[in-house]
């Protein structure tokens, strides 16, 4: 089962996150980056095509044997479902219609959410904005694992189980760390999702409904794309809080791997983040980076010095404004 890791608490830091200062320095030297701060209208058509692709898949699997339903749920459904969660990530930053049409992005996020089977878009947006404003903030940033996760998932076998159960922990963590009153849009998101799920079950049957839910859960658990959950902020090198990934899976994930670039410029859509890196290469080339999310998953499990506790955490000062 592996040996328990040495770390027994989070890495508490007493400095601000690095992204605001780096953003300021980059814009002073490369003001042309401001021209990239605009919506990616191609995202709209990509999301529509992804929704249509899943609707076709729901139809195609409805009469398959269960073993093939499971096969396609993992091989295809999991990939497109995880990719859709990252499209929703883009939409949460108003990347589809821009800041001037913020509500259009919220409605579009609910639409993109439909083939996932589980309501996600509106709640994700509320908590994700906190993650950017208060990175590592104690009691605010729900991307940080709970103390129980850090304490219990401390051996190789348990860390493997933790990766498998990532969807579960991401779902319950906000309720444990930073519960918020349910909003009107969250209720609409829930009702729209339940209605869609009932329609899929009624017209296509249990296998299509199972494919939809299973694909989402499998895609967010033990899956190569899920390496980004750990790669983004887990402290493999002491003192470094955010890491970028420059491998091929960025093609399926709206360049979420360009994570230092994204936190520096959250209002620049993923499509343009490689250009940010190219323009400001002197700021990014020497930062720690990855080229394989699979290797990140392997190293997380096998390295006894890494665990869910391997995150920077900070006490927040002053007023905290949340969505």
Jot down its keywords.
two-stranded parallel ribbon; globular; endoplasmic reticulum; retinol isomerase activity; isomerase
Explain what this protein looks like in three dimensions:
The chain is mainly alpha-helical and 323 residues long. The protein has 15 helices and 4 strands. The strands form 2 sheets. The chain has a two-stranded parallel ribbon with strand order 1-4. A two-stranded parallel ribbon has the order 2-3. Helix 2 packs antiparallel against helix 3 (66-92), helix 7 crosses helix 15 and helix 9 packs across helix 10. The model has no long low-confidence stretch (mean pLDDT 95).
Order of helices and strands: EHHHHHHHHHHHEHHHEHE
Overall morphology: globular
What's the β-strand tally?
A: 4
Rg from C-alpha positions? 20 Å
Beta-strand portion reads under 5%
Q: What's the arrangement of strands in the largest beta sheet?
A: 1-4
Instruction: State the helicity in percent bands.
Output: 40-55%
CA distance, first residue to last residue: 41 Å
Mean model confidence by pLDDT: 95
- In DSSP terms (H or I, runs of 4 or more residues), the helix count works out at 15
> Biggest sheet, in brief?
2 strands, parallel
Poorly predicted runs: none
The structure class reads mainly alpha
List the topology elements.
Elements: E1 11-12, H1 19-29, H2 42-61, H3 66-92, H4 102-113, H5 121-133, H6 147-152, H7 156-164, H8 166-177, H9 184-204, H10 206-219, H11 227-231, E2 244-245, H12 259-264, H13 273-279, H14 281-284, E3 289-290, H15 293-302, E4 312-313
Parallel strand pairs: 1-4, 2-3
Helix pairs in contact: 2-3, 2-10, 3-4, 3-5, 3-10, 7-15, 9-10
